[in-house]
Amino acid sequence: MPISSSLFGMLRRALGVGSLAIVLGALSACATEPDPNPAWTEEEAYAAAEETFRAYIGIADPTDDDSARPYVTGDLAELHEGESSDELKNMQVRGESVVLSFDATDFRTVGEHATVSGQACVDNSSIEVNLDGEEWYQPREDPVFGLEMEFASVDGGMLLSHLDETADDSC
């Protein structure tokens, strides 16, 4: 029995519509979903980095690795995990470091992780050390100095991962 032209036209249209639906379905499956919002905004990361730095600088005894551990990761964590010399174990420190300025200079994200770079100016003019149990003295000739630092997000916090004194002593 021959197929009538109207039946043939309807089948052709149905095949065309079905093919179009398949092509559209395949294309929509290939479309990328928008990236989720990053876990860190630039402002949040800068604020967390500054808070961590100020807490780290404010540690009463910089030779006490347990006091520093909550604020550091990476290079600095390894440094604090190293064995302290006997001289450092006997060192007494008094005074307070003062952060004169903190400037976050760079923010980057990779997935949910963020890094922050920054610079700070620190005044240690009230810091004194005593190594021999007798005489207190200032450990630095120039107690005001600059620092460059890196921070990395770890478990929802921003930790200090690298710290270097700047070549330029002026802040």
Automatic annotation (TrEMBL):
Keywords: Signal
Domain of life: Bacteria
Keyword Signal: yes
Position of the signal peptide: 1-31
Name assigned to this protein: Lipoprotein
Species assigned in the record: Microbacterium faecale
